[in-house]
């Protein structure tokens, strides 16, 4: 419509009046609507073909070129209608001679409008993308905290606490020095749980230190019927794990197996092909606790936030869970 007013004023010397509303304003409004719909169509089509997320530069160039070509087509059609409605006796050469300045201005205005629109479109995309990333980041953090809270609850179960207190009670009458160390390790384990559980990842060395403290409680409780072996090279200590992940696997081995002098339980922690493996022999209980799959799923979900590698399960002669090493925090 602005192009129509500009061309009319250049030719006649005054603004178009009411009598030109149908012949001038209405076609201009229709062509403006076509231009808007064409712009939306091009944007949706390019989102499927070359989205802003894939290649910013190529998308910007293609969108500018496509919109400019569409604008040229609409201007050519509009110019033909304008030529017929304003002065039907004008030839194309006469129309060019009279309106060449307006045509150049219109093409320049079209270029600037297309350029500004593409810049604004990219800015809107960038803002929406940033907002989506912030929302995903908050959701990710909330999911991690929920999973770690579930892991924390599993470590604070009354059954383990009751058994530990019973062990302390019996040790106080048998060996006060062992009882004192047991209480110290018991307190150290729970201090680690509360201190580290709010972190998404911790160094493998810290997790193994906690497992050693937790293991002392198990050794006092089961004596020779239980054994833990840790064989981890120093280089692997630079990797990271979700807190309580290894301890949960050791605890699962305790929960789901019969432990006695005649059926001892042995748990091995080692490195194999960039995986940390927790392996134990199988002495199954008659009734398996329901918490096994819950614990494994908790570990899987927490690992999925940091690596695409899957957690591997193997149950043949031994039950083995392999956790992928996370090399960066």
Automatic annotation (TrEMBL):
Q: Pinpoint the Signal transduction histidine kinase internal region domain residues.
A: 148-224
Q: Which InterPro entries match?
A: Bact_2-comp_sensor_kinase, Sig_transdc_His_kin_internal
| Segments traversing the membrane | 25-46, 66-86, 106-127
| MF-aspect GO terms | phosphorelay sensor kinase activity
Q: Name one GO cellular component term.
A: membrane
Quote the protein name from its UniProt record: Signal transduction histidine kinase internal region domain-containing protein
Entry keywords, A to Z? Membrane, Transmembrane, Transmembrane helix
């Amino acid at each position: 419509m602005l192009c129509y007013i500009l061309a009319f004023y250049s030719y006649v010397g005054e603004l178009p009046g009411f009598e030109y509303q149908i012949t001038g304003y209405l076609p201009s409004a229709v062509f403006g609507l076509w231009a808007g719909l064409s712009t939306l169509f091009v944007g949706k089509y390019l989102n499927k073909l070359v989205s802003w997320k894939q290649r910013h530069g190529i998308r910007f160039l293609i969108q500018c070129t496509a919109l400019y070509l569409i604008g040229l087509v609409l201007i050519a059609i509009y110019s033909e209608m304008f030529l017929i409605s304003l002065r039907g006796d004008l030839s194309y050469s006469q129309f060019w001679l009279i309106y060449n300045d307006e045509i150049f201005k219109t093409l320049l205005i079209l270029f600037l409008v297309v350029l500004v629109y593409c810049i604004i479109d990219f800015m809107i995309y960038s803002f929406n993308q940033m907002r989506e990333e912030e929302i995903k980041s908050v959701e990710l953090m909330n999911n991690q905290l929920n999973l770690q809270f579930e892991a924390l609850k599993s470590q604070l179960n009354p059954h383990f606490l009751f058994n530990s207190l019973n062990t302390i009670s019996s040790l106080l009458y048998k060996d006060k020095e062992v009882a004192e160390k047991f209480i110290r390790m018991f307190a150290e384990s729970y201090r680690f749980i509360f201190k580290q559980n709010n972190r998404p990842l911790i160094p493998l060395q810290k997790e193994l230190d906690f497992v050693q403290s937790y293991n002392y409680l198990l050794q006092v409780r089961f004596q020779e019927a239980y054994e833990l072996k840790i064989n981890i090279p120093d280089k692997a200590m630079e990797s990271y794990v979700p807190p309580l992940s290894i301890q949960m696997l050791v605890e699962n081995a305790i929960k789901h197996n019969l432990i006695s002098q005649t059926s001892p339980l042995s748990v091995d922690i080692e490195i194999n092909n960039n995986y940390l493996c927790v392996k134990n022999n199988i002495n199954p209980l008659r009734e398996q606790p329901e918490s096994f799959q819950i614990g494994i799923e908790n570990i899987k979900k927490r690992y999925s936030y940091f690596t695409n590698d899957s957690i591997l399960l193997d149950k043949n002669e031994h039950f083995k869970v392999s956790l992928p090493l996370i090399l960066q925090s």
